[in-house]
Amino acid sequence: MRNQVASKPLARHEFIPFHVPQIDEDEIRSVVETLKSGWLTTGMKVKRFEEDFASYLGCRHAVAVNSCTAALHLALDAVGIQEGDEVIVPTMTFTASAEVVLYLKAKPVLVDCLPDTFNIDPDRLQRAITPRTKAIIPVHFGGQPCDMGRILEIARRHNLYVIEDAAHALPAKYHGKTVGTIGDITCFSFYATKTITTGEGGMATTQNPEWAARMRMMSLHGISHDAWKRYAKEGSWYYEVLRPGFKYNLTDIGAAIGIEQLKKCDTFGASRNRIATAYDKGFSALPEIQTPVCGPDLEHAWHLYVIQLCPDRLKITRDQFIEALKEQGIGTSVHFIPLHLHPYYRDKFGYAPDDFPRATEAYHRIISLPIYPKMTDPNIDHVIDAVTQVLQEHRR
Length: 396
Ligand SMILES: Cc1ncc(COP(=O)(O)O)c(C=O)c1O
Hints:
Blueprint lengths: L24 H13 L6 H14 L3 E5 L2 H11 L7 E5 L5 H8 L3 E5 L10 H6 L5 E4 L11 H11 L2 E5 L7 E2 L2 E2 L6 E5 L12 E5 L2 H11 L32 H12 L1 H18 L6 E2 L7 E2 L5 E5 L8 H10 L15 H7 L7 H7 L2 E4 L7 H18 L2
Parallel strand pairs: 2-3, 2-4, 4-5, 5-8
Antiparallel strand pairs: 1-9, 6-7, 6-11, 8-9, 10-12, 12-13
Helix pairs in contact: 1-8, 2-8, 3-4, 3-7, 9-13
Bound molecules: pyridoxal-5'-phosphate (PLP).
């Protein structure tokens, strides 16, 4: 149902998009410098970005690639996932987290979420393990770390690899540990809407030098790892193809943006945190919605701020609520349409909506509000006022 819901417009206000990246003169200067340097593809800027990223997180190896999807694919390949293996993936995620399992002809086994944080439910995860299970891909939903203590304990007991999908979780901490230093391999996204961006891009981090070397080699056609240097003065024209790899390398243009973005990662994180706090406070007296629940001893990256409508208190649906906010000049989104509700996963694996009742129920109630450093105080106030007004107009 996408019928328009008339709402009295609040005072005139510019449209607040769901997301706007924060690109300053530093990024522009860095890109121009790279364009003028004569070296556009993977080179010294990528190397520097990897070093900066590893030192920012405190991990041993960081491999830059052109998306988080690529990083996830390379990570599964590095730990040896093969045809017939099963990999556990939450249903409450983006298709990238599961499609990479299919790239390797393995089977993604979906698991329901916790009802409050939407992170994977460790009890249900445990019940999904079979003798074919080889790995788990916990997704830190919205930037809130999963229960990594339980997940790692289950993984170690069943001899499973843990490949974290941290597309949303930069910077984030679980019990004092930085996300990116916890599981076997962690994958980050620098897609345009993420907490830092390179336009498109990703990074895989690990403590294991063999996995890092394998990912580096496979990210550039399976050629020896210094392949990118073959056109440089110190490089050599000679190379050997060791495996059938992929074309996943990040460009120096992307890295030029990433180096500058990373310098501001803490400031960006603090801005997001401030907006989340303002929303929590602004929405605290509204019984028609639930605000995000944040677990103890965690640092949340606040990539997403997801509210849940309480349908029994409202006369409008989630879709109508989205339309009403659009009329008030606010862009929103929905994270996520759970994987089991998509035609491909539903038909291929025979999933029904009730197989994952929490994710199915949440899907009809969730809305992601704008949250990004470029939002001004009047923008934040406008979102709070608009949500409040729409709820007041449509409460039962
Ligand atoms: C949870 C999750 N994992 C993976 C990805 C894929 O990231 P990328 O676009 O960098 O491949 C996304 C993208 O939005 C995501 O939300």
